[in-house]
Write a structure and sequence with these properties.
With 185 residues, the protein is α+β, with helices and mostly antiparallel strands. It is built from 4 helices and 4 strands; from the N terminus they run αββααββα. The chain starts with 6 loop residues before the first helix and ends with a helix.
């Protein structure tokens, strides 16, 4: 009963799960604002919904709808149409680089963490192509200080990068310990 995990299937499962969870949660938020589950392009009245507050929960969390035309923390946010395509192209280029890195990587844990990054990046690229902006909806705050709104794709990216760095740090520590133990012998 000890079956070995098929690495390609495992990575595909991570990718699809991250992408689907991101897509479905964004569609739910959009449907809450527009009373329609299938909004396929950028809503003409998006300015009415940028920063739209659906509700405040637990004293530290808001459910909002924000169309972010920039990158993290709304940096490079612009109404210039070319920026939409430039940011999409940059994201796709980075995804291609990560895929090349994954192909060369031998350990599944690194491949899995980077696959999460790819799922998040592709999720946000899909938004940029569909809407010209990324749909953000999770807003955490303390008092009047708010962390910039984000989405499930952003969680995938941050979690993937965090796991990759953690695995590298643990492997480096383990490697350092092995070298130390060899010197003692």
């Amino acid at each position: 009963m000890n079956q070995k995990i098929n690495p390609k299937r495992f990575l595909m499962l991570i990718f699809i799960a991250g992408l689907l969870l991101d897509f479905i949660t964004k569609q739910i938020i959009i449907s809450m604002a527009y009373d329609s589950f299938w909004i396929l392009s950028f809503p003409s009245d998006f300015n009415n919904y940028t920063g739209f507050l659906f509700g405040s929960y637990f004293g530290f969390f808001n459910l909002v709808l924000v169309f972010n035309k920039g990158i993290s923390f709304s940096m490079l946010s612009s109404n210039i149409e070319a920026m939409r395509w430039l940011l999409s192209a940059m994201s796709i280029f980075i995804v291609i680089l990560i895929i090349k890195f994954i192909e060369q990587e031998k350990e599944l844990k690194y491949k899995a963490s980077l696959t999460l990054v790819i799922a998040g990046a592709i999720g946000n690229v899909i938004d940029r192509i569909r809407f010209g902006a990324v749909v953000d909806f999770l807003d955490f705050y303390i008092g009047k200080y708010h962390w910039p709104a984000f989405n499930v794709a952003d969680i995938c990216i941050c979690t993937g990068v965090g796991l990759f760095l953690l695995f590298k740090a643990l492997d480096w520590k383990s490697h350092k310990e092995r070298i130390k133990n060899k010197k003692k012998k």
